[in-house]
Records
---
Amino acid sequence: MDKKVEAIILAIMCFILTIGICIQINTVNNNGSTVSGSQQENNLKSQVLKMKEKYENQYAELERAERELEKERENIASSNTELAELESKIKKANLLLGNTNVTGTGIKVTLSDGKADPKILDAENLIVHAENVLAVVNEMKNAGAEAISINEERVTNTTAISCDGNIIIVNGKKVGSPIQITAIGFVELLSNLNRPGSTLETFKNNGKIVDFKKNSNLEIPKYTGVLNFKYAKTVK
Amino acid sequence: MLFIAILIGCILGAIVGINVPIISYSYSSYLAIAIIAALDSVFGGITGTLKGEFNFKVFISGFFCNSILSMLLTYLGNKLNVDIYLAAIVVFVGRMFINLTIIRKYYIDKWSEKYQEYKTRKANKIQEEQK
């Protein structure tokens, strides 16, 4: 066989091979999985990643089904005034429950751990704790915030903010520093969070890094969990 | 010529591969074993070309069949809870090393021959000058 043809065939095969290698490297990098020395650890890691992927796929399917459902509801509601009223009620309830993505004016507070400083005696004060986040969320609610999220995790009426070692758990999901707390509401009222002597100012004095920003176009994602009421029943 | 073609193929592949979307993590173990099989075939192809016994049909069919077969074996291993892919890796990497040895020997022979020629030519020249 001609040498030229051989070289070209080998080049094409190498082309395919390098595409495969690049895809594989990208995939592995994207999942942040490094090969660890222990086989067991590797297996557990890959299992977690597979489960996560499964969850994401299922969630995307669920979202698609929900969109379809909404379309169907709208179709039916457009022909019947009584149903239209119910439809608007459902929409309002979903908005209140935090089941929809919302956008509007508001503020964004970023809390991050302070840098180690020998002058500060109590290093405990430098760290952003779950209680600090809770205090900020409470103040936001006090100032009339209509929708709040912590690092893209929506705060609903069932949300718990708890401490879990060096991270914070919101809605059962891990949240780490820097913590971005976003609130949508009346900006002038929400701005009071930044007043002298406020919680945020105390954090600043303690050595934490606090960033306060007003924003006219914020977006807060919807709650991704499931709301279940098993025990509470309406009183007749 | 051969290595320039391979280099061009690799560079083009890298450019395309970086811009191709990533696959889902569940399938990455299959792709990994396919890559090893393909790598083995490419080394086999290079060896064949150097030896002058390159067979186009054998090479192409080996490239794809080995990849697919190793992926199927990995799948079977997953189902049976046996790491069959380890056996495939041992075979492929073992063959890769054998092929690498052949390639290395070929070039060592070629270059040492050239060096010998150069030496004799130089000696001849010196002899002629002395005359």
Note: Chain B has a mean pLDDT of 88.
---
Amino acid sequence: MAAAPGVSMGEALNRALHDAIEQDPDVLVYGEDVGPLGGVFRITDGLIGEFGPERVFDSPLAEAGIVGTAIGMAMYGLRPVVEMQFDAFAYPAFEQVVSHLAKMRNRTRGAVALPVVLRVPYGGGIGGVEHHSDSSEAYYTHTPGLRVVTPGTPADAYSMLREAVECDDPVVFLEPKRRYWSRQEVDLPVRTEPMATPVVRRPGTDATLVTYGPMVETALEAAETAAAEGRSLEVVDVRQLAPLDDGVVTASVRRTGRAVVVHEASVFGGYGAELAARIGERCFHYLEAPVLRVGGLDVPYPPPKLEHHHLPDANRVLAAVDRLQWESEWTDDGEGRVRP
Amino acid sequence: MRLVDRHGRRVGHSSFTAPDPARLVELHRAMLIGRRFNQQAGTLARQGRLAVYPSSTGQEAAQVGGVLALSDQDWLFPTYRDSVALVAHGVDPVRTLTLFRGDWHCGYDPHRYRCAPQCTPLATNASHAVGLTYAARRKGRDVAALAMMGDGATSEGDAHEAYNFAAVWNTPVVFLVQNNHWAISVPLHRQTAAPTLAHKAVGYGMKGYHVDGNDAAAVYAVVSHALAEARAGGGPAIVEAVTYRVDPHTNADAPQRYRDPAEVEHWKERDPLIRSERLIRDEGLLGDAEETERALAAFGAEADAIADTVRERLAGAEELDPRSLFTDVYATVPPLLEQERAVLADELREV
């Protein structure tokens, strides 16, 4: 059977780790099952064989210890890239992440940098049983000092992971695990736009879909369908969720006048609330309709047979787009006034 | 394990010998400085010139004995109660108080002093020590670390994970557990069912040492031995230094609500400074009686001078620029923080 065309996101991440280890002797990769097994998603496949157990190795099964030791290593000049096996398995490390990883540079007035990359496969859509499908980004984005990034394409997965390893800030690198197998024609190595900058994935004129990670593909699918129906949707991929540089988002929404924020996480208190609030603050006079949010249900992540009801799909996105007050656009109220 | 009893008399031990006289004198001198520092900082806290001060009065032997066992290239990973350890380690005494004065979270450059920031979240500093020594070994450097924690902290999951990582990776870390019997108001017997905290080492494949933490000679000898073994690849160790928190948890605590004053008096009789001074006098480690008085008086004067300097240097208000809040959150100031800094600058102009 011929290999599928292009590069999958998983392969791109694997290659990024490979190239980072090869190019910087201070980079090392460790975590649970990342050695001979190559990680449960095979993202570290082959690395221990090529670079040996000094650079790539299995650690005890203890996430707080993994992050805590990575902090100590970074204090002494290494650049550890550690894997949390699943989103929900990263919670034991939360104190290390919030109280130390995020704050060390600040509390030492810049004397101690922590160039640690915390790789976290996140989100659902793979039929995982409970605790394997959380969209945990908002827990991290609410913590100053962390860079929180998430790629939406294989090319970005490669480029952003390389940039994350080179970055002198701690980076929570959220990998949309359901997109590990998504493919793209791209020659690696590749460098895309700097991760701090959102990018327009698809230009459009009628409304902006602001999204990231696993929902980039969904938003593009929605935009494709909308185009066939005569509606032009712009898709903005945020990429670095925190700290947010919202210039590209603002410019897009000011152009289109309508916005839907799309993520997989539950809507209430989610990262989309921050995006919607910022768009409201910066684009109020350009908006033709309230900013809407599309996301998962506000319930604990459902069991596999019900998860498709939770996960936003293109239809849910398009239903929100339909609610952007198109029908009332600049109608004459019969008394000489034009209003929405 | 004990080498000098509470009366200042030497106790024989099959495996450990007391450090040489010069070192015994040095331990006493450092404890004296530590005691005066504790007193001075406590006073400053009562006067409101420090926001808070967690005293380690009574624990000077454990802190000084552990720290003086470190070699020049070694790192210290202290907690918030280890100011005396920091001072003995060579950190500027005033800068050990930056945290408690409320000026900043850490007052010194950790790399300059080979000393991590004073850690408040219990036991979370321990895995940092494991990682740092792992990295140093990878870089071909002979660096060991002393990771400090209290009896309460040994109940934390982070202590468990750090012990385990250190043992599995065989990193040169000595975990110095100061068992001062009280985690704020919770006594040791509500903390653990282990016979001693040193016993916990067994489960990790480590050595555990149970030491009289008010005997500086013993703490020094055991930590030195454990560090040497760890350095040589013999594995990390837990050293439990049994001591007592004579003062309240902090100046905001109310110990009369949870402990019997008689217990405090019992431990005051076991004060680490009493026994080291008696040893020095009885054995003439500083010469004849006259020379001893002179030398001890000089130590006291030195400790007073350090305390006075701390008080004087803390008398003036440090210039704090609120705009610096944004400087070191990230390697470069991101647009979001630039915007907030501009807003804050406007607020400052309006004041």
Note: The first strand of chain A starts at residue 7 and ends at 8.
